[in-house]
Amino acid sequence: MTQLSQPTQKLISRYQQWYQSFQPKQGITTIHVDEVASKVAAFYEKIRGIIDWKEEHLLKRRAIERILKRRLFSQLDLSNGNFSQKLIAEPLVLELIRGGHFPNDKIEESKIQEVQKTIDKYIFILNQAQSGPKKSKLQLYSWISGIAACEIEEILSPSIKERALITYMFEIINQRIKLSEKIKISEQEKNTQTYIAVQRALFKLDAPVISYHLFKHKYADWANQNIYSVKENIERDLSHPLSDKFYQICEKYDTPFLLLGDVLSKNPTEAKEKLSDPELLEALITAHYNERVKTLKKRLGRAAFYATLSIFLTNIVSLLLIEMPFNIWITGYFFKPSAITIDILGPTFLMFLLVITIKPPKRENLGKVLMEVMKTVYGKDEKDVYEIKKFRKRNIIFEAFINLFYLLGFIAILALIVWGLYQVNFPPLSYVIFVVFLSLIAFAGAKIRQRAKELQVIEEKETLFHFFIDPFAVPVIQLGKWLTNKWKRYNVIAVFFSALIDMPFAVFVEFIEQWRYFLKEKKEKIH
User: How many other CB atoms sit within 10 Å of the CB of residue 424?
Assistant: First the structure.
């Protein structure tokens, strides 16, 4: 038996705590919703998930945020801009369970009161922060809603094992990361950036979730602080100039932690004996590694499907509501079938091509993963060092030349696309829209290809193909990234669903449930 490192022993203890939390409790009243109403609501949420697509592990939090915003907005007093503290926790939780985001008959009724206290806390923050400019108020409302949604999710479904694995990886990676002498940041900054990078790499958490964790740990005494300053500081942490370098290290070495989490999740009560035996641990890690390789392609395919379908539907709406009417009324142009086909299917084919060419990790990658797991679980006297360096400063002339070359590459690929569209008689307005959707797909595909490397520890060598294609591909992907950030704010179909369908549908589902309860009550009196 080999001695486990101190952080590993703590991790096992936290996983055992998580395991105990799932044991059935006697005499606890749970929340129940009507099964028929739940099926109707769950079907709508699936449709909604396609329109406002998010990665699977973020769908639950996104649904909480969307429903919370809608219910909070109904409590807004337009005369003074304040939110009234009415009881909205119960209908909020019931709607989430109906939508299939949380299991029926599993959540304790006492959680409703906890959720209401959380909502009241954030309403208090919003009401106390009404002195800022109107634009800042709207941004704060959206930011606070995202953080509140994260806390509500944690109340209803505590992420004990995820937090345990984040803490474990942070403690180990933070010791290994060293900064070059040219980088001048404080130890606290380094800790914060490592903490953020671990969350992004390990579980692909987004800005609202990470902001919530920073808000909870760094600003526990929020009542005595300016919430606008708190928001600004957290956003500054998230956009730190060195954040990408911290992320690259954490992304490269997150595989051992993910696999270790898989091993512990199976049966934490026997984890110490399993992990103390190197041969058994190696066999378990190998089995879970192979299992992840098998499921990776399926998950990537699903992500590609929903990302493409979301943009595909919006592309059709854009074609029918904007492109066709504009070109018919202004220029008198009628779309030909070939142009319509290319307009809709061109970006979709690009996504298919990006996903179908994804390759599984190489065989030698498993050996490197096993070595990293052993070093992590048992510890060793000689510690690995991951140094963060800044790129060397380039000569001003070379800098100007490189930027010009980058710009020319972007112009060249745009010119090639426009020339191709011109050959099939695309109208000028459609050039812009086609490039927009093509860049969105390119960025989404690039992210999915990055996700395919989540098990890869060995260095990937750049080929001659990358050398020639990157000057043309990177600018398009960067445009897609910029547009994606705007897309999150101005997704027209998602806004349409929220404004015109969400609220009436929620009322309709509640009516179905109340009608079902009414009929059950009448049936009980028949005897």
Answer: 12
Do the domain assignments include residue 46? no
Rounded Cα–Cα distance for residues 162 and 426 (Å):
50
Beta bridge mates, 390: none
- CB–CB of 447/478 below 8 Å? no
22's tokens: 């799932």
How many helices (DSSP H) and strands (DSSP E) are in the chain? 22, 4
- Residue 333: the pLDDT is 64
Per-residue pLDDT, 436: 81
Q: How many domains does the chain have?
A: 1
The SS3 call for residue 226 is: coil
Assigned domain for 289 exists: no
- Please state the rounded mean pLDDT for residues 474-501: 63
Grouping H, G, I as helix, E, B as strand and the rest as coil, residue 392 is coil
Report yes or no on 349 lying in a domain. yes
Range of the domain at 459: 294-490
Rounded to whole angstroms, how far apart are CA atoms 4 and 376? 9
Q: What is the pLDDT of residue 392?
A: 64
Task: Tell me how far the alpha carbon of residue 100 is from its chain's centroid.
Answer: 19
pLDDT band per the 50, 70, 90 thresholds, residue 316: confident
Give the list of residues 6+ apart from residue 68 with CB closer than 8 angstroms, or none: 92, 119, 145, 148, 149, 152
Does some domain include residue 163?
A: no
For residues 26-43, average pLDDT: 68
Six-digit token pair at 483?
């547009």
303 in Cβ contact with 310 (< 8 Å)? no
